[in-house]
Every structure is written in structure tokens, then in C-alpha cells.
Specification:
mainly alpha; Growth Hormone, Chain: A
């Protein structure tokens, strides 16, 4: 095979794996964009669709470690292709769904199960198809494909929802998966491990523990974290969220003890607990968690500003998010190509700092009356940081262990990303609503144009939090209620400022977390995987 043909074959393998990542990441953003339309089409409520989204996240987060182990048992290539088949069946079921129940079977169930097989296998297949020098670029492109899908989701979902139907997105995914299956035959596989069996007790413990934690995080916005919100359930005087998270932590502790016990007895384990003592792997997984946390929070906040505060359509919102996609892809591919010997730790640290700078710039520009153009510069910066980190972290985690354990690493890595994304979305949403509520009530209480009786009534009716609505939506509601124009104008003005305060507060926390992540990168190596550290000046020769 000539060098040109070898490069083409390598590119085809990389495109195959990146396409799989793209398709899976596209789903949630499309569903979020078309949530109201999907609810109407299926004869259900927005809450029903939100439940389906929650279940999809739960399935992925709770079974990701198990998916990695199944790949070790039957082979990564085989499990990748099996996952694609399950995922395609789920996409087709979703496209044809007549009601919410069928949607949840197809999307939340089958697609979620397909994803837990595909995502860990993708990490392992990069390791088996690319040498260590090529892995940063390969992992960078695969990670970039997922982030780009998240950014393009509103654009794609908005276009199909507006001009055709949301169902065509899922039908199109079936066709893409069929192409991936045809191309997947070129993938090089690692042989299945002999004599390895699935630890069913470990599977139940890990799935239960992670499921409880993620479910608690996802419900924190509506139930409250510690103190229950009005009309929310309470357990022993506290919000169920804190009990779910604590219960999940206890179950995960039992899971770690169970796995250690199996290994001590010479039995197969779902995951080797000693992997978590590997500082390089731990730093890589935690960095992934922070990266996806901040990324998901940003993708939650910025579209809200564009679509609700400014009233942009889903398509226009997607166009405004494109700068992040462009720089993310540019840096994910460019860093390994231009600086192949760069320190991974330095790149990751600079990535978090660029992410921090982009968010801080957006906070500074986010003022009442600001237009959509203010997000361009900040998103260019944030995208460059995310792309730089994506170019290094996948290679960092897999190179921390032998290639035979890459499936387990894939399960841990993707569990970290799912946890990070869940925390980022829930945290950003909770802070946004809390800050919006506090700002709104402070403004109306200090405005003589708003009667005290109206303020009291609003505090009673909106005790769970002021909803994030546009000025147009609020004005229509006030007009329908017969509120005098002067009072209505004061309320609308308070809401506009409250929205900005809420958005800025959520972004400020995300910026702080970007800096906090720097404390957990010390285990990331300063030399590229497979490279030998350069000798210091004056060092005696070996031997």
C-alpha cells in the first residue's frame, strides 16, 4: 500500500469514528431545539419530552462503564457495530414514534443503549488503529465532532423543524449509521479477552449509583438541592436531591469495594479500582469532567440569551454558535499538527484559561440592549480552548494504561463526560433562575410603579423561581391580566435586567470552575505519549 493510500485509509477510519460521535451528540441538542414541536406532534407535554431527555442521559451515564467491559468481552469492533445497529433501530423507532411511550423506547432506551456500546468502543478503537504519535489528532477530531454536533444541533434541528419535520433528523441518522457500518469493516480490532465474564453485581451497583447521582443532579433545578422548593417532594424535611446524591455515593463506594474483592479473589471485575489511583488517568478523566461541565453550561446559557432574550429563531441561534464550532475544529486538528511535541499539560491549562477568558469577555459584553454579535468573540475564544483540550485529553487518558485496558478507560472517560455535562446544565440552570428571581424581586420592590399587593402576589405565585421568558411573552401575559401600562413597563424592565443578571451569574460560576479545573491537571504529563523527555543540559550520558 502506498503512503497516499495508507493516509486515505487512515482518514477513512478516523472519519468513521468521528461520524459515530457526531451522530450521538447531535440527538440531545436537536431534541432540545424542537422540544415544543415534538410535544405537540406526539400529543404530550414539554414535561413529557423533558422526561425522555432525562431518561436518555440516565441510561448513558449509568451504563457507560458496563459498555466498556462488554467491548473487552466480545471485541471492540464487534461491540461498536452492534451498538450502531441498536442505535439505528432506536433512531428509526424515534422517527416513527406515534406517542411519548414509543419515543422513550426508541430514543431514551434503544439509542441510549447503543451509545453506551459505541462511545467506550470508540476510545479503544482509536488506540488500536492509531500509533501513539497520531492519537492526539485522532482523539481531538473525535471529541471535536461531538462538540461541533452540540453547536450545530440548534441549526440542524431548527431547519428541519421549520421547513420539514424533526422526524427527518432521526431518519437521516439511520442512513448515516448504515454508512458507518459499511465503513467500520476497515477498523482494526483488538481480540476479545478470553475467559472474561460480565460482573452482573458490579453492573447493578455501578448503574444504580451513577443513576441515582445523575437523576438527583437533573432534578435539582425543579426540586432544590438541599431545601425543597415549593410544591416539590421532600424526604425527612430535605429535598430528595441531596438524598439521591448521597445514596448514589454510598452505592458507588460499595461498588468499588465489591470490585476490589473480586480482584483479590482472582475473579474478573467490571473495572479495576486501582485504575483510579493512576494520577495521569485520574487527572485526564477529571479534566474531561470539568471541560464538559463548562461546555454544557455554556451551551445552555448562550442559546437562552440568543433565542429567548433576543428572540432569535432556532436557525439564527445555530448560526451564531458556529464560531465556537469553527475554532474548536481548527484547534483540535491544528495543535497536534503544528506542535506535535507540545506539553499536553500546558495545552490543557491554556485551554482552560482560554475558556475562562472567553466566558469573562462574554460577561463583560452582556449588557441590557446588547445584540447577538457580542457572542462571536467570546465563542471564538471558548472554542479554541475546548479544541485545544480535545486534542490532548483522549490521548492522555488512554496512554495512562496499557492498550488492553483502553475499553475500561473509555467507560470511565465517558462516564466523566456524562456526569460533567449533567452537572453543567443543571448548575447553570439553577444559578440562572436563582439570580434572575433575586434581581427581579429586588427591582419591583424598589419601584413605586409596582403596587405592594402585586409584589406580594408575585412572590407567592413565583416562589419556585421566576421563569426565563422574553419581554414579548411577559408583556402579552401582563396585557391579558389587565395590568396598567406604567406598572407593566416597570415589570418588563425588571425582568429584562433580571435576565441579564441571571445569565451573568451563571456564566461567572462557569468561569470560576474553568479556573478551578487547573488544580486537577498536575497529573497530566508534560511530554507526548510515547515520547521520551528531553535530557536536561549537563546531564551525564546514560550508562
Amino acid at each position: 500500500m502506498t503512503a497516499k493510500k495508507a493516509a486515505a485509509a487512515t482518514g477513512l477510519v478516523l472519519a468513521t469514528l468521528a461520524a459515530g460521535q457526531f451522530v450521538m451528540a447531535l440527538d440531545t441538542t436537536v431534541m432540545n431545539t424542537a422540544i415544543a414541536t415534538v410535544a405537540d406532534d406526539l400529543g404530550t407535554t414539554v414535561t413529557g419530552i423533558q422526561t425522555a431527555i432525562t431518561m436518555y442521559t440516565l441510561v448513558m451515564a449509568s451504563l457507560m462503564i458496563t459498555g466498556g467491559k462488554i467491548g473487552e468481552i466480545i471485541g471492540r469492533k464487534r461491540v461498536f457495530m452492534l451498538g450502531c445497529c441498536v442505535y439505528a433501530a432506536g433512531s428509526l423507532t424515534t422517527a416513527l414514534a406515534p406517542n411519548l411511550t414509543v419515543l422513550m423506547i426508541g430514543w431514551s432506551g434503544l439509542e441510549g443503549l447503543g451509545a453506551v456500546l459505541i462511545m467506550p468502543a470508540t476510545v479503544a478503537l482509536v488506540a488500536s488503529n492509531f500509533g501513539k504519535p497520531e492519537r492526539p489528532k485522532a482523539y481531538g477530531l473525535v471529541a471535536a465532532a461531538g462538540a461541533i454536533a452540540a453547536a450545530l444541533g440548534p441549526l440542524i434541528g431548527g431547519a428541519f423543524t421549520t421547513y420539514a419535520s424533526w422526524r427527518w433528523v432521526f431518519a437521516g441518522e439511520v442512513l448515516i449509521i448504515l454508512v458507518i457500518l459499511l465503513l467500520a469493516r476497515r477498523l482494526q480490532d483488538t481480540p476479545a479477552a478470553e475467559g472474561v465474564k460480565l460482573d452482573l453485581v458490579g453492573t447493578a451497583l455501578s448503574a444504580s449509583g451513577l443513576g441515582l447521582i445523575v437523576f438527583g443532579i437533573l432534578k435539582s433545578g425543579s426540586w432544590g438541592i438541599v431545601q425543597p422548593k415549593p410544591d416539590a417532594p421532600e424526604w425527612l424535611g430535605l429535598s430528595p436531591v441531596i438524598w439521591l446524591i448521597l445514596g448514589g455515593a454510598v452505592v458507588l463506594a460499595l461498588f468499588v469495594k465489591w470490585e476490589a474483592r473480586r480482584i483479590a479473589r482472582g475473579e474478573g471485575a467490571l473495572v479495576d479500582p486501582t485504575l483510579l489511583r493512576n494520577i495521569q488517568l485520574r487527572s485526564g478523566v477529571v479534566s474531561f469532567l470539568f471541560m464538559f461541565l463548562v461546555q454544557a453550561g455554556t451551551f445552555f446559557v448562550v442559546p437562552l440569551f440568543l433565542s429567548v432574550a433576543l428572540g432569535l429563531s432556532a436557525i439564527d441561534t445555530g448560526v451564531r454558535l458556529l464560531p465556537m464550532s469553527l475554532t474548536l475544529l481548527l484547534f483540535a486538528l491544528g495543535v497536534p499538527r503544528i506542535w506535535p511535541d507540545v506539553s499536553p499539560r500546558r495545552v490543557v491549562n491554556l485551554g482552560f484559561m482560554a475558556l475562562f477568558a472567553g466566558i469573562v469577555l462574554l460577561i463583560a459584553l452582556l449588557q441590557e440592549g446588547a445584540g447577538p454579535e457580542i457572542v462571536t468573540g467570546p465563542l471564538l475564544l471558548a472554542g479554541s480552548g475546548l479544541g485545544a483540550m480535545a486534542s490532548q485529553l483522549g490521548s492522555v487518558t488512554v496512554s495512562a494504561v496499557s492498550d488492553e485496558q483502553s475499553g475500561e478507560v473509555g467507560g470511565l472517560q465517558n462516564t466523566g463526560t456524562q456526569l460533567g455535562a449533567s452537572i453543567g446544565t443543571a448548575l447553570a440552570g439553577a444559578i440562572l433562575i436563582s439570580a434572575l428571581t433575586a434581581s427581579f424581586f429586588t427591582a419591583v420592590q424598589n419601584n413605586p410603579a409596582v403596587p405592594d399587593t402585586m409584589v406580594t402576589q408575585a412572590q407567592t405565585n413565583l416562589s419556585a423561581g421566576v421563569p426565563f421568558v422574553s419581554d414579548k411573552q411577559l408583556q402579552a401575559g401582563l396585557d391579558e391580566a389587565g395590568v396598567p401600562p406604567e406598572t407593566a413597563d416597570a415589570v418588563v424592565e425588571a425582568n429584562a435586567q433580571g435576565r441579564i443578571d441571571g445569565l451573568r451569574s451563571a456564566l461567572a460560576v462557569l468561569a470560576i470552575l474553568s479556573l478551578l479545573a487547573l488544580l486537577f491537571t498536575r497529573g497530566i504529563p508534560t511530554v507526548q505519549p510515547g515520547a521520551e523527555p528531553k535530557p536536561t543540559m549537563g546531564a551525564p550520558p546514560a550508562g
